[in-house]
Amino acid sequence: MSAIVTGRSAPILAAVVCAVFANALAAGDDKQGQSYDVSAWAIRASKSNNEVSLKLKPIVKDLKKRFNYTGFKLERKKQGKTSEGKALSIDLTAGFKAKVTPLERKGSRVKLKIEVTKREGKQDKPLLNTTVGLDRGKFHLQGGWKIDSKSADVLIIAVSAR
Amino acid sequence: MTTPNDNLDHLLDRVVAGRLDELTPEQIDALEGHLSATPAAERRLADVVPEADPRLSAIAPVPTNADWDKVWQRVDSAAPTRVPTARAIGRTIRLWQPLAAAAACLLLMVLWRVAPLRTQPPWELQLSGDVVVHELEIFGGDSAFVAYSDDDGSAVIWVFEEDESQGGA
After folding, report:
1. What predicted TM-score, i.e. pTM, was given to this entire model?
2. ipTM, 2 decimals?
């Protein structure tokens, strides 16, 4: 064996081992942990103003049509990377947090588990757990929670993955 | 009475004594002819070693053994302690070849994994159509409903909090 490993065959052998290793890595990736980009936007919906954040313009018509609110402000926009079956925790605003777990990706569709919590004291209080299927790279909305006690503004979360 | 050979013997004595510069070109020619014709005279010169000029010894004295020892000690101390042999160099090269190949493979793998990230288009805020709600769990006294759009099948999940008197959606 040592005779085979020495000399000119050594780099070839090393390259073959690396290629096999890379292939196995890629195969494992396909099988259990494809990489996902996840994005979550925190939107403050208000009835006290008509202000709309510039970045929300593409969906402002939908927002106004669907919700009985006039102002939509983008509070926070965060994105991260995770793998299939692995939750990505995203801090939103005012103690709200979205934990997004990609479950499946088939063609142009993704399936996500979304868990919304709010920090109360030292604990995260669960508010809503959902599993939704949606178009890859496009957003799904859920909301209705009051952001603070000072106003009637509510939180809308837009979640997407690809 | 002197014979020509007596003169030649006298010249030969000068040659033996190393005083060649005292001979004229004619005398040298005559001496060469004599040596060629007289084997006895030639034998007389066979083992003669010319004496060194004493002035040369005075200018450049011959190094002693102690001097040579010092020289060799200096050479030893100036030389590297361990000179790599050709075999060791060959072994190093053989080790570096697979390492270099492995490093190249690793670089390719990293590029392979990083490249797709760079090619990802920026997020475009667009609502998804055909949203399917597989599971929905609400906590405490809150309630929720799913509002589907007739246009594109997009859906909004709206939560009514327990103390909320009226919904916003």
Report:
1. 0.56
2. 0.76
